[in-house]
Amino acid sequence: MSSILNNAIYADFSLLAVILLGTSFLFNKGHFFPQKNRLEHIFYEKVQKQDAPDSRTQVTRDLGEVSRKHDANFVVLWGSQSGTAEGLAQRLTRDVQQHFGCQVVLGDLSNFDPDTIANIPGHVFLVLVLSTYGEGDPSDNAQDFISYLTSASSAKARIEHLRFAAFGCGNSSYRHYNKVVYDAASALEKCGAKAIVPVGVGDEAKRTTYEDFHQWKKDLFSCLVSEHNMVEHDVGYQPAVNIQFESSPAKAPETMATTTAPPNAKVVSLPIVSNQTLTLENAPRRSCVHVVADLSGHPEIKYRTGDHIAIWPRNPKQEVDLLLHVMQRESQRHDCLRITPIDAATKTRLPVTTTLEDLVSRYLDIGAQVPRETIMMLAKMVEDVVIRQELQRISGTKESYSAFVNSSHLTLGRLLAHVHELHSTTSWEWLPISFLVDLIPPLKPRLYSIASSSIVEPKQVSLVVSVKPEPLPDRPDTLIHGLASTYLANLSPSKPSAPAESGDLVQAEIRRSTFKLPFSPQTPIIMIAAGTGIAPFRAFVHERARLAAIGRAVGPMLLFFGCRSESDALFVQELAKLATSTPSGLDLQIHTAFSRESGQDKVYVQDRVREHRDNVTKYLLQEDAGLYICGATAMAKEVTRVVLDAVMDTESWTDAQADEWRQTKRRTKRWSEDVWG
Question: Which of 62, 130, 338, 353 is 20 to 30 Å from 449 at the Cα level?
Answer without folding.
Answer: 130
